[in-house]
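Researcher: We're teaching a course module on how sequence relates to structure. For the next exercise, students receive a sequence and then see the predicted structure as tokens, so they can try to spot secondary structure elements on their own. Here is the exercise chain.
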Amino acid sequence: MSHVKEDKRLKKELGLLEIFCIASGAMISSGLFILPGLAYAKTGPAVVVAYFIASLLVIPALLAKAELATAMPKAGGTYFYIDRSMGPAMGTVGGFAAWFSLAFKSAFALLGIGAFALLLNPGLNEIQIKLVAVVFCIIFTIVNLIGVKHTGKVQIILVAGLLALLVFYIVAGVFYIEASRFTPIALKGLSSILATAGFVFVSYGGLTKVCSVAEECKDPGRILPRGMFLAWGIISLLYGMVIFVTVGVVDPDKLQSSLTPIS
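Model: And here is the predicted structure for the students to work with:
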């Protein structure tokens, strides 16, 4: 019987680099590539401040999830924590809620992929754009089904490429920033900044989802919190710098009406 139980256990194959990349990859999506233009339309140049505030708002969730994942390093994340603390019924509700949130966030990210496909090929029609999104959805699903070890490797490659592109974008764009584009900074008042912070909060929501793979982490008590905080710090900094460069370089009228402002 002990042998059978052992076979059912998930393999602990994720190290600090994999956890960092999974958490970072969950953050770098449409929240960076699509939302800046929409957020700029709401609050103007202060969108940089709004992203900073949003990064601070996720800290309580980050601390709570890191503590829970350390104390209960089991697969399932939110579902498991609620099930243990409030019972199976509430755990089921929490599990479905987490599933729906992931489904909607994934759909949002796939929408971003479709928008970039249209940018690369303006001749695509609506059906073709949706087909591109579906194909990428299938590809990522297959990668996840193959196994966490391979998923971690793919995530490292994808995140490394994304980080390299973002750093290049910042370095190349910083020399073309026009200070006049930041005045007045609080164009629509404090209330619009706070509202926009809530609007872009989804950009950081994927960070805590990495707790779902706690059981497959080599040393969850040490690696998970470090990986999560490392991802939060680095990606939040990159978010701020990318948004700052974008606001300083792109024409305001074009920025607030674009779904692909980073492009």
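Model: If you want an answer key for the exercise: The radius of gyration is 20 Å. The chain has one domain: 13-256.
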